[in-house]
Amino acid sequence: MAGTEEEGLDDLPPSAKLVFKVLEYNGSLTQKGIVEESMLSARTVRYALERLEDIGVVDEDVYFADARQNLYQLNEAKLAEECGETEAACAECD
User: Fold this and answer.
1) Burial of 16: CB neighbours in 10 Å, binned 0-12, 13-18, 19+
2) Which SUPFAM superfamilies does this one have (predicted)?
């Protein structure tokens, strides 16, 4: 269930790739926001976020507007490291 170190974004299931794209397009979102944007079930989004966190491309933070929820965002430094570019250059390679 947990990802290996060698696992990358290309190795993830389609639901995790969709969640990645939703975060890439919309920026930081709560799990509820990701569910609404992706139209995936809450359970599927939880699993996708877990897989994305396992490989280090998504970070979880406290959502200050409602501390019961978490805010999810892409880890730009990890993404830049994977593509071998700086953070600014990696944002341009989309």
Assistant:
1) buried
2) Winged helix' DNA-binding domain (SSF46785)
47 DSSP β-pair partners? none
- Domains, in order of start, for the chain: 9-92 (1.10.10.10)
Q: pLDDT tens across 7-51, in order?
A: 788 999 999 999 999 999 999 999 999 999 999 999 999 999 999
Cβ neighbours of residue 69 closer than 8 Å, sequence gap 6 or more:
30, 31, 32, 63
pTM of the model: 0.78
φ, ψ of residue 64 in degrees (nearest 5): -70, -25
Proportion of the chain above pLDDT 70, given as a percent: 78
Residues in the chain: 94
Q: Which two tokens stand for residue 78?
A: 């990890």
E strands in 1-94: 29-30, 58-62, 70-74
